[in-house]
């Protein structure tokens, strides 16, 4: 079970999307260095790390879904690997709009970019390719997809909505419903584009639509850029150029939503940990082997390494973990959920844990959109409005049904 939050992993073929999916989930996505390795979107469950209140309240924790380790809770979220896009996909090139349509269900996009410059725009092996081009053209393809759909429909829809005196926001909301778009998203995009005050009859020029679409993408499809293959020879130079470029945000990208990753390193570390060759917590900055593990009990559980595996682990330690602090893949998931603006909610049956409880607490954790009210949260959890009687949080504080759920008041007992 996931929280209902969906991350779409996008990018050109052979950028490392399938490896990224394997690195953050238990999925076994097909991996290959040739175009269209992925035909159907692979899916899996990734885990969003957050601070669990069990540590603060000193109570045992046994999550129903995911897990909790040393006060860090790993909450399941759904992630899909959308088959590789190529330039011209919005006009049907490659596998065309089929890929773009897969994005409709996503809350956030993760754009996996080959930072090494060893694959061209089509995903073929090359040398010296500039990964900045991938960031630009992928954003452009999604923009053309939305803009083209909106422009084709606009004339007839405008006439119909003028007849019933609809607002600009209502009209655009009707147009964009196929993208899973709430009216509030449309309104925020209008505000960002500074087009909120225009009357409907003054709307409809290409410049206005284009301006709106660019802001709509920022709100509806916030994007984390995962600069992948950071341990390759030319990656450092390319990463520096990309960071310089996005000191000033553009193309829907800023330095705040760029993460450096090595998906294959994470896959290998998880594999070695699963096979009991190393002790490694997903996303951490270090691992221990039989030779380096200080705990004698843990040491006995580990197998000794062959020379090849030891050498690869040493390279990962030097080129990835020591240099960058981690493989970056867990940071991508964390940043993606944060960009989506979700708040963790811990529904509990009793608030008596505050006085010390031996029973497992905080078994459930759900992610709700920022702005969700207590009543809306109850409706989602109880699956029925008629069952809702009230809600309270730690300290016996009663929560009004129209109160917005926020961190700090997100441990809730519904009655």
UniProtKB/TrEMBL annotation:
One protein family per Pfam: MMR_HSR1
Alphabetically ordered keywords of this record: Nucleotide-binding
SUPFAM superfamilies named in the record: P-loop containing nucleoside triphosphate hydrolases
GO terms, molecular function: ATP hydrolysis activity; GTP binding
UniProt superkingdom: Eukaryota
The OBG-type G domain, residue ranges: 5-281
Residue ranges the record marks as coiled coil: none
Keyword Nucleotide-binding: yes
Presence of the UniProt keyword rRNA-binding in the record: no
GO cellular component terms, A-Z: cytoplasm
PANTHER family for the chain: OBG GTPASE FAMILY, OBG-TYPE G DOMAIN-CONTAINING PROTEIN
Protein name: OBG-type G domain-containing protein
Species of the source: Coemansia spiralis
